[in-house]
Design goal:
- The protein has 277 residues and is of the alpha/beta class.
- It has helices at residues 14-23, 41-51, 72-92, 125-140, 160-170, 187-199, 217-227, 263-276, and strands at residues 3-7, 27-31, 55-58, 97-102, 144-149, 152-153, 173-177, 181-182, 185-186, 205-208, 215-216, 233-237.
- The chain has eight helices and twelve strands.
- Helix 1 (14-23) packs across helix 6 (187-199) and helix 5 crosses helix 7 (217-227).
- The radius of gyration is 18 Å and the shape is globular.
- The protein starts with a strand and ends with a helix.
């Protein structure tokens, strides 16, 4: 298992995960679309046969939530078919797989944090395509971990934290939605969570790897500015005041059983690291 194939290695999560795996003694086989098209079963089989990984961490995904509404075929091709192909080949070869999924597999009607056992019911194409990918993983490879995460941000990609900091420089005040609640998650904290799944040889199954605690997008924005020492007025608004093509779950808080740190602590560490770059 010392050789780990990472799909989506050039993505926001992959760029933090791969170096961490390397630093912890694993031999990383990074792959992205250029090296292996996960939607092509023969390519997947050939790449795995050539590189002989002991484990696969599947980070590659179609992640544009709003665009997916009009690009459904591509979203399902990548998130479902791509996952199915990886699961089929890894399952046949008895290679464990960790697949990254999302809080958007839930509909947001709960009134307490979702557990891995709770019923899924996605309300947008992205969530539906990721759930289809989960089901494919579970069907074709019993040696699976499904790691659901949420509200992901990191230094290597477009995300809410960077958007807020950028807008703060351009606008005198901001309006941010306050009726969607979830768990902000730093890519580095998620990478540690994935590493712990491997190190501790956790039982196969579904895990929620998100920041501990929860907040609204409005609360998230206020904490970003507070920790950044930026004096900025953030006015709460409703989802209806800020319409988007894809519906979002109002409540997508997940119970992570203490597997990742408090979201506020991760945000503080992220902003400190960011200031050093």
């Amino acid at each position: 298992m010392r050789r780990i194939l990472v799909t989506g290695a050039k993505g926001m999560l992959g760029q933090d995960l791969c170096p961490m795996l390397d630093q912890n003694g694993f031999e990383v086989i990074p792959s992205d679309y250029q090296e292996m098209d996960i939607t092509d079963l023969k390519q997947v089989e050939s790449f795995i046969d050539t590189n002989t990984p002991g484990m696969i961490i599947h980070c590659a995904a179609y992640t544009n939530v709003d665009k997916a509404e009009e690009d459904k075929d591509n979203a399902f091709l990548i998130n479902e078919k791509g996952s199915e192909n990886l699961a089929k080949i890894s399952g046949e070869k008895s290679i464990p797989i960790i697949a990254i999924s999302t809080d958007y597999v839930f509909d947001g009607t709960a009134n307490k944090p979702y557990t891995p056992e709770d019923k899924t019911n996605p309300i947008n194409v992205y969530g539906a395509s990721k759930l289809a990918g989960e089901l494919a993983i579970r069907k074709y490879n019993p040696m699976h971990y499904i790691a659901r995460t949420s509200w992901l941000y990191g230094i290597h990609g477009k995300n809410f934290v960077e958007t807020m900091l950028s807008l703060a420089e351009k606008l005198p005040q901001l309006k941010v939605v306050n009726d969607q609640v979830g768990c902000p998650t730093w890519t580095v904290a998620l990478s540690y969570g994935i590493l712990n799944l491997i190190r501790q040889e956790m039982p196969y199954g579904i895990y929620h790897l998100c920041g501990s605690g929860y907040t609204s997008w409005h609360g998230f924005a206020e904490k970003i500015f507070e920790l950044s020492n930026i004096d900025k007025t953030v006015t709460p608004c409703s989802t209806e005041e800020f319409p988007r093509p894809a519906s979002r779950p109002k409540y997508s808080v997940m119970d992570n059983h203490g597997m990742l740190p408090a979201w506020e602590d991760s945000l503080k560490n992220y902003l400190q690291l960011r200031s050093l770059k």
